[in-house]
User: Which sequence fits this backbone?
């Protein structure tokens, strides 16, 4: 998995703070922006987060490139609807020699790994053979969830906070959890105050809606 | 593929017509509803469609059950974000003995079909063996796009018109095109005027944005 | 203010429960629907709410007519973006003799009420005079926030839960709080289990994000 | 009216072009970005627009400050739901001595202007008097549509194209049309190729859904 933050709204914390001040001030936006100091920005952003006034967090967005993840992950990822996605098409790109994501539980189990690789070898061969006979969009019906894909993903800071809450939780599958952790690390570098307390409810002081039984942490 | 319309907003055309009249009338909504006659509803709905005043079409929604479609289709389907989905989980449901969608191009080509079925047999066996060793959520990495899934899908009438425009077009893949055609047939039975001119641009009098070369109709 | 529930997805609780069972069952949707009993539906809906699995609540939507509310309210209301609205247009409807919403604080204060009514009388007269000279869309610039409007509003059950959480809170303005309370009463009649624990955080056991100081209940 | 573009996704055209190439290429995103040349970006963006593949335009967003517009405008503006808004609150900001937008049709008509200003003077005085008696959130019920407000608005490039299509049309009210024209001018400076053919249907070669009769251009 390779994840990069390729772009983001410049000065994201200042934009969020200006949006917040606007709601409570008679001044025009340019003056508000000009008058905002570093420490004030930090404090405002903290208050907004505490009070759940997160609509102001929507004004800034972040663009990620995501390579080397499975189609199992991408099918989960695109269910987050307040976001924008572009994804490599299995209809238009021939996936001959495709690379696959191997789950850690398989990689660490020799019997499972042997079986897994035999199945994937068979699929490589079947896919190549089918490409000779039918369109790529139909040959791909034998491609497995493990098949690697690439995406460009855009989310605003509010949608990211929600994404991190759900997907850094141990209830999420290991692969999308890894993606979420990496995305969080990346945005914290450029907007530390916006994402200071991002993460699963048990780390951010919110009540955990899942039963204790289901949590790998609590077992 | 089995598609059923399991629920919808009652009297959908009347609700849309009432919404439209509301915008241009000093009357309260209940009076507007009471005064609407069948023929008037039909005419109003036609005018709204012609002028592109489709926000009124959002007030009514339709619930479909979709069974026996591939995960290739479901990954495309859930990219439509103004909609709600519930889908059978490959993390929580063991797919032992899973059934598969066979593309027509494969079914009609004996060489392809033999290769396709050999690959799927291998996957059935590999999946069953992996289930003995690793969690279902990881065993599923060998499941193919062809693997059947089930969904419950809700879209409002405006989102459906957009969905039909894109997905009944010959540029869409055969499987989601088949789904779109069936959904269109179902909603036309209960709301004929809302969906009278639904379909690809070339059937509804809109300009086709795709090049002629790419269209199977024009070849 | 007059609020009516004019339509909704039939059997809303059963649809939500079926969506939930689908995610964890190998059965097709029609069988799932057929096998659902009243008590099971009630229990499933409760579990979904407790665990925050609210995407299933999106499958059912509710249509309200709202008459006799102010444009101050409607400007707040339409900020809820996961919803559909049709509203009486001040550009196309001449508001001669418009009716106004009088805030309780004004109604109960004789000095304020006299001043308020004098201002509104002046506006009635100014609006009528301007209509003789300029288009209605420009004459309306003198219409006050108090001016009554009508809307048709559609929200799904998940969006409604969020709406109720924010707008039944004492921090919300009295008018939209009254609207939210009425909408909640109406949907509880047709879907009691979906909305059993709807309301402000302090009534539903969630942490209150607002400071105690700001709450009229805690003073 | 004062409109400023205060922030935007850096290199917006390159981000859109990279998203488009990703869909049709086996390469990872960073390589795609690195290999994109100026002329190629321009050509790709043009093709995407022509074919209506606008999901790639969603990856870039633009932040505007909008000051000195009426609440009539802001009520229209926030109906565009695929966008984010922060707006000066009439509940928390005391609008004593508020400034007003005067429609051109009123400004150019001495009789109308006199009547308009008399009404607004009365409202200034009524609002100030009410503030002595009731909370600001209730006093504001006498504030007129003309009352000036400030917003911070974020839209992505796809939402902007839609906004420009509807709101630069002569059917839109003069004030929001002026806002749309200014926003279009601003984004064209930083992303000329994305917005080269933005505007009303009659200027961009699309069919006009409105009847000719209703258009001020065709009269």
Assistant:
């Amino acid at each position: 998995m390779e994840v990069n933050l390729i772009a983001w709204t410049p000065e994201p914390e200042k934009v969020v703070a200006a949006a917040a001040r606007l709601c409570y001030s008679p001044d025009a936006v340019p003056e508000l922006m000009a008058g905002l100091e570093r420490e004030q920005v930090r404090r405002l952003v903290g208050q907004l987060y505490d009070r759940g006034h997160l609509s102001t967090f929507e004004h800034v967005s972040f663009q990620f490139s995501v390579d080397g993840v499975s189609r199992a992950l991408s099918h989960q990822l695109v269910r987050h609807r307040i976001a924008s996605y572009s994804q490599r098409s299995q209809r238009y790109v021939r996936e001959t020699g495709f690379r696959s994501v191997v789950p850690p539980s398989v990689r660490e189990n020799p019997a499972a790994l042997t079986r897994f690789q035999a199945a994937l070898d068979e699929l490589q061969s079947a896919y190549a053979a089918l490409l000779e006979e039918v369109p790529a969009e139909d040959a791909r019906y034998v491609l497995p969830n493990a098949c690697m894909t690439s995406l460009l993903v855009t989310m605003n800071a509010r949608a990211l906070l929600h994404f991190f809450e759900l997907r850094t939780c141990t209830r999420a599958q290991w692969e999308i959890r890894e993606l979420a952790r990496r995305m969080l690390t990346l945005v914290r570098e450029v907007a530390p105050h916006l994402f200071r307390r991002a993460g699963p409810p048990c780390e951010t002081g919110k009540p955990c809606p899942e039963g204790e039984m289901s949590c790998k942490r609590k077992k």
